[in-house]
Predict the structure.
Amino acid sequence: MKDPRIVSHFSCGAASAVATKLILSRFDHSRVMIVNAFIAEEHPDNRRFLVDCERWFDHPVTVLRDEKYGASVDEVWRRKRFMNSALGAPCSALLKREMLESACLPDDVHVFGFTAEEMERAKKFLDNGALCPLIDANLTHADCLAMIERAGLELPEMYRLGFNNANCIGCCKGGEGYWNKVRQVFPARFAQVVQIQESIGPGAYLFRNRHTGERFGLKDLRLGAGRHDEP
């Protein structure tokens, strides 16, 4: 029986890069497929990092790009009329998960870059047979950043600007502190997302007043509110 494919999910972040490198050291390269979903709102330097990582991996990355929404989270938000919910973000589902699933086979073994701090989040993936090499090696997010730098790779620009991940510029999963960071570093992008929220209405508001429970949007985000943690 043919061995199943090993599919490593590479997001252009440090953790998924190190996870992919570890997997390539464990399995024959002919069994490994590295996949990435292109997102229009990511920092363009992510593409430079992907090319650098291909050289580091000595293995190509298969880049998938959504056509229905133009690979754009903004377009998903506008057409779906919301940005995030208890069930997750529509942009992640449509532009990442569905695109990556379209390239996969039923018996593929999936690799994710969950770090040692993310054990709880990773449990459902581990239960389904996924590989999480960073957790196996007890590697933290900080460890991954250091390993990338020791390998001589330049981290994506988003890290160098002080963000914790290389996600989209303006991730709908971010908290108040994160969005205040976006407002500081990318004021035009912040204003753009304010306009999208207001065109949709309260259904797109990401925050709640701690005292009243009332939802509010970025236009009412107080300067200095929150702290810049995740994403």
